[in-house]
Structure formats: C-alpha cells, structure tokens
Write a structure and sequence with these properties.
Layout (H helix, E strand, L loop, with lengths): L16 E6 L7 H7 L3 H9 L11 E2 L11 E2 L1 E13 L31 H10 L5 E13 L6 E3 L5 H9 L5 H5 L3 H5 L12 E3 L16 E5 L5 E5 L10 E2 L22 H16 L2 E3 H7 L8 H4 L4 E4 L7 E4 L15 E3 L5 E3 L7 E3 L31 E3 L6 H8 L3 E6 L4 E3 L1 H19 L35 H14 L21 H4 L5 H10 L4 H6 L2 E6 L11 H14 L3 E6 L5 H4 L10 H16 L4 E5 L5 H12 L3 E3 L8 E3 L4 E3 L1 H12 L13 H11 L12 H11 L15 H19 L4 H4 L2 H14 L4 H12 L8 H10 L14 H6 L2 H11 L15 H5 L25 E4 L7 E5 L7 E10 L1 H9 L9 E6 L13 H9 L5 E5 L11 E6 L16 E5 L4 E4 L4 H10 L10 H9 L15
Parallel strand pairs: 1-5, 10-12, 20-21, 20-22, 22-23, 28-29, 29-30, 30-31
Antiparallel strand pairs: 2-3, 4-5, 6-7, 8-9, 11-13, 12-13, 14-17, 15-16, 18-19, 24-25, 26-27, 27-31, 28-32, 32-33
Helix pairs in contact: 11-12, 16-23, 18-19, 19-22, 19-26, 20-21, 20-32, 22-25, 22-26, 25-26, 31-32
Length: 1087
C-alpha cells in the first residue's frame, strides 16, 4: 500500500492587504525604480487609495523620470488572489566543498538572511539547494496587481528638444522670476505644436526579465489552418473591415470599395440594413461623423456600422475632414460649400466630478452608443453650448454647431481663397483658431459641470480673420488682463501660427523654395542654428534668408565597387546645386556589400541596411530642415532605402543611380566575366569540373584566381539584371530619377552630366511642389512591375517594391497578386544576365532603358502620363530618345519574346499559404517534382556543397529554412549556394527557402516562402524525403505526399527555435521586422 503524502502545513493569513506593482525592469536600484513610478509619495498615495478615489486611472511608468513631458506607460490592473511570503534563507547556498575537488558537498549550518539585492534566479537556486532549511512566513495577501506587459523598444523623448528644456528649466522649476520672463515665441520660433517634428526615439536601455511583446490586433487570433499552416481570424464572427484611409493631401478620392473587401453578401442581416440606411444618409449628407450617423439612423445595433462603412465611404486620416465618413466619389476639398461638413476633433477626458471637497475625478462607464436607441441622446452629435458633451464624443462637424455665439462667428467667416488640406480647410486661420479655442473651452467647462458665459468670449470677435507675422500684434487684445481671456488669446495665436505653407511666394512673386529651411533661417528665431549654418558654409545673409537648402545623401563607403565612387558624384552634385543658387549639404549613410558578404554571416546585415539608409536620410532631412533631397545610391538595398526615406519625409527628391560596372574579361578563357562567374566557378571548383578548354594544363586554382582578379574591373554595381539594376530600372520607370539614369555606366561621362541635370531638376520639383508621394502612385508602381517583368529583374524587386509601396501608404495596397497579374501579361524580352548573355553596359550601348521604355510605351504596356522629377510626363521625357536599333540582339521583339509572360511567379500551397516568389525564365521548364532534402540554415547547405554531398541523378528539392526576416535574422541572400549548384551542373536540383536569392541567381529557385519557419510557417514542418512539387503554370508549391492530418501532427511536435541573436542591431531588427509578403518593413505594426 502506497503511503499517503504528508499533508501541507496550515499557515495563518494576516489581514494585511498588499498591492503588487510588477516593474518590467530588473530592479537593481530601488530608489530609481520608485522614481520611475512617480516617486515615493505619489506611488504610496496611489496604492493606498481605494480604486474609486484615485486621481488617475492607471499607474504610469516613466523610464526616464527626469523628462517632465514624457507620457507614461499605463499599467493594466488585474485582480489577483495571492499570498505574500517572507522566505528566510541561509546566507550561503548550503553547499560547499574545496574548489576544484571531486568531494561530496557538505552543508553549512550558518543560517542567516541573504543580503539585499539577491537575484530571482539566485533565490530559486538557494531554495532548491536548501530544501527543509529555509523558513517561510505568510505576511499578507494581495488582491490587486499592476502590470506593464506591452512595452515598446523605445519611447519618444522630449529631453533633447529646446522647448522641453526651456519649460523644464523656466516653468517646471517654479522659479517666479524665470516664469515671468518666459516667452514661448523665443523657443518655438513660430512653430505650431501639431506640425513640429516629433522628438527622436530614445531607447529604454533597461535590463528586462522577459522579451518585449508586440501584440497583434486583439480582435484577431492566430490558429492552425487545415493545411498545416497558420491563419488569422477575427475573434468575433464578423466581416473584416477594410476601409479607404486617405491622407489629407491625396490627389484623388476613391469611388468604390477596396478590392479585397469581402462581398456584401457576407454581411449579417443587421449590417446589410445598416449599409442600406447609411447609403441613403450619405446621399443627403455626403460627409458625416459616426455619432451623427448613428443618431440620424434608426438602429439599435450601432456596432454593425463598422462593417457597413467600407462599402459606401472612405475616411481622411488627417486634415479638416478627419474622422468623418465621406461618400464615394465626393471630394469635399473641391467645393467651398462643403466647409459646413468640416470636423473639429478634441481629445476629451471621459470624466465626471465627484461632489466632495477634494474635487476628484472618476472615469465614467461605457458610452451611450452602446445603449439602445430609445435610451440614447439623439442630439449628442450637436453642440448647443448648454448640454454637456456625450461621454464618447470627440468629433464635431461645423453644421452640427447650434450654439448661437459660434453660429454668429461662423456666419461672419470669410471663405478661404485656396483650400488648406492640413488644418483650416475652407476657413481662414484666424477664424478657425478662434472657433477651436472657444469650442474647446466651452466643452471643458460643460464637462466640469460649469455654465459658460458668452460675455467672456465676445472680445475674441475682434481677432483678425487671417493671422500672419505682419498682423500678429493685432492679436493681442487691449483687455487681456483677465486670466481667461489671456488664456484664450494665447491659444488662438498658437493655433493660427503655421510654417511657411506650400506654394508661398517671395516678394518678387517667384516661388519660395526654402519652405522648410526658413523655419531655422527667417528673422532671428533660431540664432544658434544660423550661427552654426554660417560656420558650416552659408556665405552671407542673402543666402541664409533666401536660398533653399538641399541635402545630398550618398551611400558612400570604401571597400565596395558599387559605392566607392559615390562621394565624388556627390561633390559634382554639390557644385551643380550651388550654381543654381542653392545651398548643398553633403551627408552620408552606409550599407553592406552583398557580393562581399554573400555566403557568410555578414549577409545577415544586408537587408536591414535598407531600413538603416531610410532612417538615416529621413533623420538628417527632417532634423536639419532640408528643403529637398538628392540621394546617390549604388548597391542593392541602397535604392529602395532611399525611396522609402523620400516617402517618409515627402520633400522634393531625386535619386541618382551610381551606375553599373563595366564587364570584366578573362584573357586565358577568352570571354567576358562578371562577379557571378566567381560564384558559379566556385561550384565547378568544388565538384572538380572547373577547366580551361583553351589551356588544359591550367589548374583549377589558377583559373579561379584569374577570374577573381578580373571579374570586377572598377567602380559600379554588378552588371547584370541583378537587384541593383532591377531597382534602378524600376525607379526610373516610376519617374523618380532622370531619364537614362538606370543604364548609364558608373564610369561614363554621362553620369557626371546627370549630376548637373539633377540640380536643375530638383529646383523644378521645389518650384512645382513635386513631392515623392505625388510620384509614388499606383500607375508608377505598375510601370515598375512592367519593366521588371520585361527585363527579367530580380525577385528582390518584389520585396523592395512592396516595402516602397507600403511606406508610401499606397492605396489600394500593392500585393503579391499584383506582381502575378503583371507577370501574366508582360512578355520577357531581355537577353540579360544572369539568365542571358549581356550586361547593362551592353544595353546602354544600344540606347539603354529609355529605348526599352519607348518600345513598351508604344505597345501600350507603360503608362506615359505619369509625372516625373523633370516636371514633365514620362512620355515627354522619352520623346527625345532614339528607339532601339533594328540590328541589336539584346532586347527581343514583343512578337518574339524569350517567354510570352513574365519570369516572376507567385506560388501558394501547403508549404507557402501566404505566398512565395519564384524566378522562372522557362529555360528550366515550368514544373519540378523531387525529394526534399532539408537544411536548417544556409551554412548547413554550404557545408554539404563543400563536401560534395548533394547527390546527382534523382530529382532533389533542397529546402533551406530559418533564414527569413526574423529567423535569419535578416533574410540573407543565397547566391553562393545557387551559383555553386549551377557551376557544378547539378541540374537535378531545385531550391526553396524562406530567405532570399540574389538577383544574380538563376535556375529553378523559389524564395520568400511565407509564413517563414521561425514563426511556425509550414516550411518548418517539411521533412527529408517529402515529395515536393513546384508548378509555375498552376502557381503552386506543395508537399504532395503530406496530408493535412500529417501537418497537424507535425505542428504539435514543432518547437520554436531559440533566437539566433539576442542583442544588437540584428536582435532589434528581428523584433521589429514584418512579413516578407508585405515588404519586411520595420516601421509598420498593423499588418
């Protein structure tokens, strides 16, 4: 009979109640930890108060408590039922023996409480080592825990902002003399708070006991799919809302729902009725807020509105019509009559006042929209100046304001001559500022249970309708002695003052080109900045006050032929800029050479340099207030990094491609060679098939040495239609570089002439307000994809174009399906490396990319109407270029293509449910079936190749996994492996990976498999011996002999691998990077 286990001892629980605060840092200094939670007094008062008595809703964490203006991170309050234990341990672990001896441990009976600061892991070890030798006492119970579980990797900090420093020193210090002499204008320089640059991110740099967790949409859950992959579903069985979200300055408005909206038939009956009534309402009132729509329609099911709006309306993310539903096809920015539908948005605190001496605040319950219609205030969208605003209300429309005082103000308001898309809309800035200030003050008073007195606001009617520097003195009223009036006039002046608006003119009527730099250079607003600029090279006062400042960003560094010459190109650009009466500032960012890092650990750093380049250019351009940017990239990731930066700062910009390298030549082999020859020859070298038919006595080491010495003869990017030339060609077709930029060799005199032309073009862009987002249109991306398919561009072009489109917030979004659609209709016509015989220098000799675009434009395959950086259309730019010579052999006629459709194929199946990208020119066939040979990491495949372990004969599908954006990390290119296989003539092999292949790769290869293995994608479940079929004609990638049941069983056995790196730039990248199917971005968290 098994004896019963001993009963656990009963311990009394004292009545003391303890509140837990779970600090996210490893606390080494208790005083600093308490300071980060508000300080001892504030923290103690908060924790001792009953929940309904607390003056703030949540406990807040500030990782930099010395920054007075940082918004704290809210804790989540959780009810718990825990005991608080006091554990008394021996001073030492209780185990000791002579060092380096093999003797048994003996116990030490010196039982003393350990010193403070014992780490958790030390405490756990000490308890394990001293079973029965430590004392446990229950000292209290806990019913409430405050937790910080959703921390970002950085917080935005104001500590380095001039305004914040002055406020902290002169105001927060409570020094009366400093407060009395404090002037906002001295610090802000006239900037409006809503348009000032955001402060730079400051990384927390704290030890944390757990990994940061970036939460998915809480309404979405991730589940196992029947095919063994992962899929996401709404936790509620509702149609996913997919709505057009426009920027304030987007050129056009949508006329139909997004293409990926679910069919209307999928809506619930209540949602269908809501959609019917909403369409009827929008016919009468084409712009309506959510509250107004709910109040004007007869429904109790308000929650259905979110699913109906996507089928009949769009929304502006910012500007005068923000947060209102606008009827498809109606653009309220075109009609002054629409100003009655403009919105005013306020962040009102949801609070009601307790009637007690302390006048504390408590947060109210759910808003009235959740109540049945019969219980709702159906006029909550209106403002009458008397009724307190609804709990959930924050947006009002001009036409819903019935307050007599504000109606009188609006009735006298002049119509603005030109619509301002960013703030005032059809109102002048003085009227708009006065309206906002009065309305906000009244709302605050009504929220507090007070009654506004219209007499307090009457003096404000004397404020000018239009406020500028010229009449700013008129905005100081004679009787501003009253605190309330002074507060209101100060608010009006703050709201009305703006930076130099787009389209401003100089005194002589010429366009004002220094729109952004004038923030620093006008008057004496920033004397320190002007002193630094004089020291940096601004020649005189006239230049300081009038000349635009152009940033010249070169991706230059030595040690890589793609980039070694870019600094010299930058110098030429600077000379040309200064000749055009502009100020040029050269600055630099860095990258990684793909060819040098190929096949080694350095390649993991390559893709993340795209983000580094974008971050660098965005940072310098915005922080230095440059008026325009000319970027000079050279290597693969450089080009998309520059364009992503352009899309972020959205100031007039031009890209100058550094140019392609000239072909190399092998004297002994008697033929042209390039960098790809090195990788392919290495495969032949390993399999002992490298020989010289012209000289049989030459050893394979001698042959490979000669190829290494002569493959790259000078500066320039890799010469075939690899990634660098693919992206340069696409960007030229989009209108973001000058005609001919993408095919002009690096050493050609024409490249220097291009630098001079770029200075003239950037001046045109500034004068005509041609900004990157005006050029990054759907038609421009279509042109990029057409050129990519026609010339046989790299699969990396898919990844980079997706990243560029998502950074520019293209609507509708660019997807993998767009690439397949374009590939299906565009013939592959270019005999260019890596699959063909010629290089970009050869194409330049017969007319270059302008001649190719001219051919495609004549066939109706390119959109010639798109705007370009020259200020002309693409068709106008190409008109002066000659066509391709009839006797050239590089570009095939459209009627006789190499392949009647494009080479890019998007595949899906039980290995890649979210898509994969294949580069199939047709020479390899259109389908391949083989036995899986699986390698976890590229290094394992390289070792197998070096050992000659890849068999010949039977068809093999090599699977390389855990090399995606997160798993690599960095999604490394695998040209070394693919080139080695080609060089070894292993034609029985196909390759698939969740990583990338170089633009120089060719053969039967599939990359970008999504989801990647590191996040549990089905590619992680593939095993040696599985039969894999790649079918380009059917667009499928499947493990054909693996059933859904097998996939589910394998998933249960799968365990996520430990992160490869845990600190440094790659660890940060792995945490931030998104899926390859959306471009592998690091600054988007809503995919």
């Amino acid at each position: 009979m098994v004896p019963a286990p001993p009963a656990a001892p009963w311990r009394p629980v004292p009545p003391e109640t303890v509140v837990h605060v779970e600090h996210p840092g490893i606390v080494k200094d208790i005083d600093r930890a308490v300071a980060s939670l508000g300080g001892e007094i504030k923290l103690g008062q908060y924790l001792h108060d009953e929940p309904h008595e607390r003056t703030q809703r949540n406990l807040k964490l500030n990782l930099h408590p010395q920054d007075h203006f940082r918004v704290g991170i809210d804790a989540s309050v959780t009810g718990v039922s825990n005991l608080v234990l006091k554990v008394t341990l021996p001073k030492r672990t209780g185990r000791r023996r002579p060092r380096n001896s093999g003797q048994q441990f003996v116990h030490d009976d010196d039982a003393r409480t350990p010193q403070p600061g014992l780490r958790t892991q030390d405490l756990q070890r000490a308890m394990r080592d001293n079973v029965g030798r430590y004392d446990v006492q229950v000292v209290g119970q806990s019913s409430e825990s405050h937790r910080f579980r959703r921390l970002p990797d950085f917080q935005f900090s104001t500590m380095d902002r001039a305004m914040a420093k002055r406020l902290a020193n002169d105001v927060v210090s409570y020094d009366y003399d400093k407060i009395k002499h404090f002037s906002v204008d001295e610090v802000t320089g006239g900037l409006r708070p809503n348009t000032d640059l955001m402060p730079p991110p400051r990384f927390s740099l704290l030890d944390v006991p757990f990994n940061y967790l970036y939460m998915d949409n809480p309404a979405v859950k991730q589940v196992d799919a029947p095919d063994g992959g992962l899929t996401r579903h709404l936790k509620k069985n509702k149609s996913i809302s997919r709505m057009h979200m426009l920027r304030a300055d987007d050129d056009t408005v949508p006329t139909a729902p997004l293409p990926d909206c679910q069919p209307e038939e999928s809506l619930s009956p209540n949602a269908k009725k809501m959609l019917h009534d909403l369409r009827a309402l929008l016919l009468v009132r084409p712009v309506v807020t959510r509250r107004a729509a709910l109040n004007l329609m007869t429904h109790d099911y308000a929650y259905e509105l979110r699913y109906a709006v996507q089928y009949c309306s769009y929304m502006f993310k910012s500007g005068p019509f923000k947060d209102a539903y606008c009827r498809f096809g109606v653009d309220p920015r075109k009609d002054p009559e629409m100003r009655k539908h403009q919105t005013l948005v306020f962040q009102l605190k949801k609070r009601t006042r307790f009637h007690d001496p302390k006048e504390k605040w408590s947060y109210t319950a759910k808003g009235q929209a959740a109540k049945p219609r019969s219980e709702r205030n159906l006029k909550s969208h209106e403002f009458d100046g008397v009724t307190p605003p609804a709990v959930e209300g924050k947006t009002w429309q001009i036409g819903d304001i019935t307050d007599p005082l504000l109606v009188r103000l609006l009735s006298q308001a002049p119509v603005r001559a030109e619509f301002d898309p960013f703030q005032e809309g059809w109102f002048t800035n003085g009227t708009w500022a006065t309206l906002r200030a009065i309305l906000k003050d009244k709302l605050d008073m009504l929220q507090a249970g007070l009654v506004p007195d219209d007499a307090d606001y009457e003096p404000l009617f004397a404020m000018p309708d239009t406020i500028s520097d010229a009449n700013l003195q008129d905005c100081f009223l004679a009787d501003e002695g009253a605190a309330k009036l002074k507060s209101l006039t100060t608010a009006i002046r703050s709201i009305a003052r703006v930076e130099t608006p787009q389209g401003s003119k100089n005194a002589d009527g010429s366009p004002m080109l220094n729109r952004w730099s004038s923030i620093l250079t006008k008057d004496h607003d920033f004397p320190g900045a002007q002193a630094m600029l004089y020291a940096a090279g601004v020649p005189d006062k006239r230049a300081m006050k009038n000349d635009p400042q152009v940033g010249i960003a070169s991706v230059w560094w030595e040690g890589n032929p793609c980039n070694m010459h870019l600094h010299d190109l930058g110098k030429e650009v600077k000379k040309a800029v200064e000749k055009e009466a502009m100020i040029g500032w050269q600055f630099n960012t860095v990258g990684v050479s793909d060819a040098i890092t190929m096949g080694n650990e350095g390649m993991r750093f390559s893709l993340q340099t795209r983000e580094l380049i974008a971050d660098s250019i965005e940072s310098v351009t915005c922080a230095q207030h440059h008026d325009a940017c000319i970027a000079i990239p050279g290597c693969d990731k450089n080009m998309p990094g520059c364009i992503m930066a352009f899309a972020r700062h959205n100031r007039p910009s031009i890209m100058i491609y550094g140019g392609s390298i000239m072909p190399g030549h092998s004297t002994s082999l008697g033929k042209p060679i390039n960098v790809t020859s090195c990788f392919e020859s290495h495969g032949a070298y390993i399999y002992d098939t490298l020989s010289n038919p012209n000289n049989p006595d030459q050893t394979k080491d001698q042959i490979l040495t000669e190829i290494e010495e002569h493959a790259c003869p000078g500066p320039g990017a890799c010469g075939g239609m690899f990634t660098a030339n693919t992206m340069a060609t696409a960007i030229e077709a989009m209108g973001l570089s000058l005609p001919g930029s993408s095919s002009t060799p690096a050493t050609s005199p024409a490249k220097m002439r291009e630098c001079a032309r770029a200075a003239q073009a950037i001046k045109v862009c500034m004068a005509q307000a041609i900004t990157p987002r005006r050029l990054l249109t759907r038609a421009a991306f279509e042109n990029a994809m057409v050129m990519m398919m026609a010339l046989g561009g790299s699969t990396n072009g898919v990844l980079h174009l997706l990243a560029m489109a998502n950074t520019a917030e293209l609507q509708p979004p660019l997807t993998l399906d767009d690439f397949q659609r374009v590939s299906n209709k565009i013939p592959f016509i270019a005999d260019l490396a890596p699959s063909g015989r010629h290089l970009m220098a050869d194409l330049h000799a017969v007319g270059g990319n302008p001649a190719v675009m001219k051919l495609l434009l004549a066939a109706g395959l390119l959109d010639g109407s798109i705007l370009t950086v020259t200020g002309k259309s693409l068709a106008d730019n190409l008109a002066a270029f000659p066509p391709l010579p009839p006797d050239q052999a590089i570009i095939r006629p459209l009627a006789n293509p190499i392949k009647p459709s494009g080479h890019i194929e998007v595949l899906r199946g039980n290995i890649a449910p979210a898509g994969a990208v294949a580069k199939i020119t047709g020479k390899e066939g259109m389908a391949f079936t083989g036995r899986a040979l699986v390698f976890d990491k590229e290094a394992a495949l390289d070792a197998a190749l070096n050992a000659g372990a890849i068999p010949r004969g039977e068809n093999i599908v090599i699977v390389v996994r855990y090399e995606g954006p997160k798993g690599g990390p960095g999604m490394p290119e695998q040209l070394k492996a693919s080139a080695a296989l080609m060089g070894a003539k292993l034609t029985n092999v196909a390759l698939i990976t969740d990583g990338r292949y170089s633009g120089a790769s060719h053969g039967f290869i599939v990359g970008h498999v999504c989801p990647e293995a590191a996040v549990g994608g089905p590619i992680a479940l593939v095993r040696d011996g599985d039969t894999i079929t790649i079918d380009a004609a059917a667009h499928t990638l499947d493990a054909v002999n693996v059933s859904e049941e097998d996939m589910r069983a394998r998933r249960k056995e799968w365990k996520a691998p430990r992160p490869v790196v845990t600190r440094g730039v790659l660890a940060k990248y792995a945490r931030l990077v998104g899926d390859a199917s959306t471009g592998a971005l690091t600054d988007r968290f809503d995919f």
